[in-house]
Specification:
Oligomer: single chain
Number of domains: 1
Mean pLDDT: 94
Order of helices and strands: EEEHEEEHEEHEEEH
Distance between the termini: 50 Å
Strand content: 35-45%
CATH topology: Gyrase A, domain 2
CATH class: Alpha Beta
């Protein structure tokens, strides 16, 4: 039987730019959760029961027990946590007990962690959002476009961001970020 072990879109990329590190997150489980019409209250209760996660508003992430939940649109959520299960939606579906529609998204996205003093200067060159901690504090997230790529950006702490984009354009995403990092490190 053939080995069908999933591979990271960027092969586990890990690079340093002085004291700043750009790392591919290779053990991140991503599951989308669609809220059924008229089912937000039931889903909210079940998310609290199953994962101790309150339903987030449109710009913040909620987190508990190593899991983060972001609201991508009025009826769409993304649950993320460290895991290598090739089908993480199965467990989420069981935990939600029919209160939400789930789909594994792990292979559809590439995730990069950017941490260090060059984080904000590098992102300021390619991101149209105000990312200063006063306006974009830890726990805040947004959907945006960087150059021509759709990106989800999450502030994970001082000088630290998690960036997600389509895995089909992982190479372009990495090139854009590394170019910006090189430009601000010179």
């Amino acid at each position: 039987m053939a080995d069908i072990t999933p591979t990271a879109p960027l092969g586990g990329h890990d690079a340093r730019f002085g004291e700043t590190r750009l790392t591919e997150v290779t053990d991140l489980a991503l599951v989308s959760i669609a809220i059924p019409l008229g089912g937000e209250d039931a889903l909210t209760s079940q998310l609290e029961r199953a994962f101790a996660l309150p339903l987030p508003d449109a710009r913040t992430a909620t987190s508990a027990k190593g899991r983060r939940l972001i609201r991508l649109s009025p009826d769409q959520l993304m649950l993320m946590w460290q895991d290598t299960d090739p089908d993480p939606a199965r467990g989420v579906a069981a935990a939600l007990d029919g209160t939400g529609y789930v789909t594994t998204q792990t292979g559809a996205w590439v995730a990069l962690d950017l941490a260090g003093p060059l984080t904000l200067p590098a992102l300021e060159r390619v991101c149209p959002l105000a990312l200063h901690p006063d306006s974009f504090p830890p726990g805040r997230f947004a959907r945006t476009v960087m150059e021509h790529l759709s990106v989800v950006i999450l502030n994970t702490g001082p000088d630290a961001m998690r960036l997600l984009s389509a895995s089909s354009s992982a190479g372009s995403f990495l090139h854009m970020l590394e170019t910006s990092l090189r430009n601000v490190s010179d």
